[in-house]
Design a protein that fits this description.
The structure is a single chain. The chain is an alpha+beta fold. It folds into two domains: about 5-110 and about 210-229, Beta Polymerase, domain 2, CATH 3.30.460; about 110-200, no CATH class. About 55% of the residues lie in helices and about 10% in strands. It is globular.
Length: about 230
């Protein structure tokens, strides 16, 4: 990481959290700590020909950060990984701007989540099916996380709220990770969750699309405040 990039993460992070198994309630003794964050590049940096980066890896291992505008763009598109960051129970750092970002969590949620979550899930399932064909078994950890994602999607569409923790599903999901469920059983579970998510769309309390104007107003305020500092 270049020194100027390190400074963006070190000095301009507005929100940082832990994601992955630890946030989902699926951590085991050997689980990594996946850190995600949002930094706000100072507005004057956008006045140059060379714009600030939209995302950065590091500086710690398993750490990844998005620039504020990029993060909002992805959240408006209902990107599963980004939306879940806003709902992590393990917040490590938050500024005034970060708190305002968190207050907009509902503005990002819409029925578009069904398309994006399921599309992502289908891509991951194809990889698991390829593993079964070539190796005789899927990567069970990935199968567990796919089941968790499909459950999250279904529950979001039903309730209008995104919950990252798996709650009572922890032990059944960890049994999948340990390879204690057969692949046909896991496939059947995935099929059921996908069907339930499809059924939930029509009756979902979520709006058809996100509140783009509300998010844009927040971003303009944040950029203006940075320019005036």
């Amino acid at each position: 990481m270049r020194p100027q990039d390190l400074a963006l993460v070190r000095d301009h992070t507005v929100y940082a959290c832990v994601m992955g198994s630890r946030a989902f309630g699926l951590a085991t003794e050997g689980s990594d700590t996946d850190r995600r964050g949002v930094f706000q590049a100072p507005t004057p940096l956008f006045w140059r020909f060379e714009k600030p980066p939209t995302h950065l890896d590091g500086p710690a291992e398993e750490q990844f950060s998005w620039e504020l505008e990029r993060f909002c763009e992805l959240a408006l598109r209902a990107n599963p990984n980004v939306l879940e960051c806003l709902h992590s129970p393990l917040v490590e750092h938050v500024t005034e701007t970060g708190r305002e970002l968190l207050s907009l969590r509902g503005a990002f949620l819409s029925r578009r989540a069904h398309e994006t979550f399921v599309r992502y899930a289908l891509g991951q399932r194809r990889k698991l099916e390829a593993d079964v064909r070539t190796q005789g078994a899927p990567r069970w950890k990935h199968a567990m996380h796919l089941l968790r994602l499909l459950t999250s999607c279904r529950d979001l569409l039903r309730s209008g709220e995104l919950v990252t923790g798996v709650g009572d599903a922890r032990e059944p999901l960890l049994a999948v990770r340990r390879g204690e469920r057969s692949w046909p059983e896991v496939e059947s579970w995935m099929d059921r969750l996908a069907a339930e998510a499809e059924e939930a769309v029509a009756r979902s309390p979520l709006p058809a699309g996100p509140d783009r104007r509300r998010v844009e107003d927040f971003l303009v305020r944040a950029r203006r405040a940075s320019a005036l500092r």
